[in-house]
Amino acid sequence: MAGLDSFQELQPRSVATEVADSIRAAINSGTLAPGHHLVEREIAKSLGVSTIAVREAFGLLGKEGIVERIPRRGTFIAVLSRADLLDLTRVRIALESLVVELAINSWTPADRAEVQAIIDGMEAAVQAGNTQSLVDLDEQFHEVFWRIAGS
Q: What pLDDT score was predicted for residue 8?
């Protein structure tokens, strides 16, 4: 069938991967702050999964540097040092600059209107003190540029 060859094969996702995604989302939303102690039993109960799946998720997140496992103390959301934040900021600036350069090549009036609508929504979220909406719109703003850039 035409167009179906563009689909990518889906990879089965483990429960541990789903748990890691849930923890990552909670960190990204600010629900879980740096330094927060993660308790396997509490997370397992909250998500309706086994503690084994949570322990595996901690391992996955540990490899990504998102959590820190301290023997005989537990697992904690990683706290980034000033140097870590500076490195991440430098990489993000370089990537975002490249994305804008790529997006310029295919920028349309419709793209401008879409971006402006997001910016207007961000301003309204700031005025209303709606932090979650602002975070969501910021993510959407960057995703639009990545899409326009074709990357």
A: 67
Report the distance separating Cα 20 and Cα 17, nearest Å: 5
Pick from 13, 21, 101, 95: which is nearest to 54 by CA? 21
Q: Which residue(s) pair with 77 in the sheet?
A: 67
Around Cβ 126, how many Cβ atoms within 10 Å?
13
Residues 34 and 30: their CA atoms lie apart, in Å, by: 9
The three-class DSSP label of residue 62 is: helix
pLDDT tens digits for range 5-30? 666 666 677 899 999 999 998 988 88
How far apart CA 100 and CA 150 sit, in angstroms, is: 11
Strands in the chain per DSSP E: 37-38, 67-70, 74-77
Amino acid at 116: Q
- Torsion-angle region of residue 76: left (phi > 0), alpha (psi -120 to 50) or beta? beta
Beta bridge partners, 74, equal: 70
Report the distance separating Cα 60 and Cα 14, nearest Å: 11
CA trace torsion 47, 77, 58, 71 (10° rounding):
-130
Token pair 């959590």 is at which residue? 67
